[in-house]
Amino acid sequence: MEFPDLGPLWLTLKLAGATTLALLFIGTPLAWWIAFTRARVKAPIEAITALPLVLPPTVLGFYLLIFMSPSSPLGSFWVSVTGDALTFSFTGLVAASVLYSLPFMVQPLQTAFEAVGRGPLEAAATLRASPLDAFFNVAAPMAARGYLTATVLTFAHTVGEFGVVLMVGGNIPGETKVISIAIYEHVETINYADAHVLSGLMLLFSFLVLLFVYGMNRRMPVRTG
Amino acid sequence: MGELFFDISLGFEGFQLSAEARVALHGITALFGPSGSGKSTLLRVLAGLETQARGTITFDGEDWQQSGAGIFVPPHKRGAGFVFQDARLFPHLGVHGNLSFAARRAPARENGINMETVIKALDLAPLLPRRPASLSGGERQRVAIGRTLLSRPRLLLMDEPLAALDLKRKAEILPYIEKLPGTFGVPVIYVSHAIDEVAQLASRMIVLSNGTKIAEGGVSDVLERLDLPEAAGRFEAGVVLTAKVLSHDTGYHLTTLEHKGQKLVMPLANLAAGAEARLRIRARDVALATKQPEGISVRNILTGTVREIREEAQTAHAEVLVDIGGAGLRARLTRASVAELGLQPGTPVFALVKSISFDRRMLAGGCELS
């Protein structure tokens, strides 16, 4: 048996890594705002954040394709700045994945921040800690479990992405041909042997990720003051 | 001597806080009132934790808040330490970590507050290696007080720090709090709805009711007022008086004290002769007689004259303030007794005080009965 091309595997890990990193920066302030705001727009924002959970990926992919195409305002702006199109490119795939995986980052963080609550932050403020200081030295460590869950789930969910990639990224080797697309292509061409290897790797990976998350949750019991 | 001035208002659903006062920045000032009177909210406003509050707060000439001019100093820049009712230790840090969290952020001026002095004053050494979750309620509050001190606050705000503790733990911590202003030179504003805590700790008090200030002044003066029934809670109403220790009788285990030239007897107190003790006498523990009683077990009978009578309409009771050589003593009688004895301002009376009503925790300096 010949070993299949592992390029799609590396591309997948690169995409998931970039998406997770981007979402850590975007998801933290968003989750923080949702957790602590008293504004009325909280409910609509929460609903929009959760949309990727319920939308068929093809629907999300379809709209993204339209918004990012070089003929749209956003797409043409991107082309004028970078010279490249967003659609059918790795960058466009990262942008799409950020939206697609948004709830997997935001919801665990929001729950973790809500569990921290205002109490410890008020205590930190009266001990002369600035809001940023209080975030990094009180809220973030207390929400460590939430960060672990959010990071792992976001990464794993991006790895399993298919519909959005198909719509926005297509199937360009080394650029947008991620593992799920490669498996689909192997099956289409009745190359079951390669499909087996890649699918087996995905199965093993997914199991290990979940085992890690549940294992860490056992080892990091919630400590209360 | 600096002062804290505030004139603030804050409204939320069904509640309006609107209070103004000047607080001298030394010793302990109590913010006193029943549950829901707004005292904790007022304390949070002073700390800057209620961003919706409007008005003026000036600390020792420095603006903390001037809503008209758009000035609002955030809590971490006010230098007001806050001890919360629920301690709020950081669960991800140990006791030592919690203390050094505050110490690292404290301004670098030498004022006698450092790890060593605070750990010593609050007996925290045995707790240092432990985690907050493993501490008892009383230990947690001691750590919280130590942590707040280590941030070198210019003002210490304490929000019912003993409310969650049982009587025994309260009695353990009270002496620590009592000596804070003296040991560390930090003025304290202490919120409480327990009159015995206020009587032991504070020299001045502000009384709040339904979000407004209804009285302020020295603790003894405020407690003598009969027009503040709900403030002190009828059952616990009473006065604080200062008495000098005269002698001890080790045979009968009694201590004799002098108050305004009259003698008082109480269970043996571990106090040197000549020392001053702060005693609290509850109105319900005082009876009045118009003739010298005879053949009676009560040992403390003080002579005085009725200064003021306040009958409570729709109830059986009346509060009587008796003048004992210039100091006040409150008695709670039935309105029927007031009528039968013919009491009115100026009537000479004998006030009978049950000796057991002297509260051991009311001794100045936190000494124990032996």
Kindly describe this structure:
The complex is a heterodimer of chains A (225) and B (370). Chain A has a single domain (7-219), classed as Orthogonal Bundle (MetI-like fold), CATH 1.10.3720.10. Chain A has 11 helices and no strands. Chain A has helices spanning 7-36, 42-54, 57-68, 73-82, 90-116, 118-126, 131-142, 144-159, 163-168, 179-188, 192-219. In chain A, α6 crosses α7 and α8 runs antiparallel to α11. Chain A is globular and about 65 Å long. Chain B folds into 2 domains: 3-230, P-loop containing nucleotide triphosphate hydrolases (Rossmann fold, 3-Layer(aba) Sandwich); 238-362, RNA polymerase II/Efflux pump adaptor protein, barrel-sandwich hybrid domain (OB fold (Dihydrolipoamide Acetyltransferase, E2P)), CATH 2.40.50. Chain B has 10 helices and 20 strands. Chain B has a 6-stranded mixed beta sheet with strand order 7-8-9-3-10-11, with helices on both faces. In chain B, strands 2-1-4-5-6 form a 5-stranded antiparallel beta sheet, with helices on one face. In chain B, strands 16-20-17-18-19 form a 5-stranded antiparallel beta sheet. Chain B is globular. Mean pLDDT of chain B is 85; it is low at 356-370. The interface between A and B is medium-sized, with 22 and 32 residues.
Number of domains of chain A: 1
- Beta-strand portion of chain B reads 35-45%
Taking the alpha carbons of the first and last residues of chain A, their distance comes to: 58 Å
Tally the helices of chain A: 11
Shape of chain B: globular
Sum up the overall morphology of chain A in one term: globular
